Structure formats: C-alpha cells, structure tokens
Amino acid sequence: MESNKICRSCLRNTENLRNIFSTEEILGQHVQLSEILASCFSVLITKNDGYSENICLKCFQLAKLSYLFRKLLKALQQRKTCREHYDILR
Ligand SMILES: [Zn+2]
Prior knowledge:
With 90 residues, this protein is α+β, with helices and mostly antiparallel strands. The protein has one domain (3-89): His-Me finger endonuclease fold (3-Layer(aba) Sandwich). Helices cover 47% and strands 16% of the residues. Helix 1 crosses helix 2. It starts with 16 loop residues before the first strand and ends with a helix. It binds zinc ion (ZN). This is ZAD domain-containing protein.
C-alpha cells in the first residue's frame, strides 16, 4: 500500500487527498496546511519524515474549520482587548 494514498490524520485509504504542504486560500490569505496543523494542534510536520504527506478531504475540512474558529476567537479576544483599552483611556 502506497503511504501517500493514506490520510496522515485518520489513516483512511482514499484517492481524495490534499497535500499537507499545499497552499490554501482561506479568508483571502494563502495558508499552508502544515501551518494550520502547527498553529491549531501543535503538530509539526517536516517533509520526508516517512509519513504520508496527504490528508483526506474530511480531515482537511476539520482542519480548516478549526483554523477559522481559532481566527474568530482571536478576533473576538482582540476586540475585547481594544475595548478594555478604550474603557481605560476614557
Ligand atoms: Zn482523514
């Protein structure tokens, strides 16, 4: 079995895969899937580490949603911080 036809995350054998080092456009920004896995899940992936470099579309969607949710929380946090500063300055 070819390791690159297996999802690195859920280990499913499928043809519908995305390369972890490919770039995706999310909210107008170009982000590498490996960066999403690193920032959301603290999973550091290097090329040629012996594991599959692909994830299936289901895992990709989950990673993308997690990334978006993280962005949302960060944006809310920043807004709160800005508001606190605003309240202090008043
Ligand atoms: Zn998967």
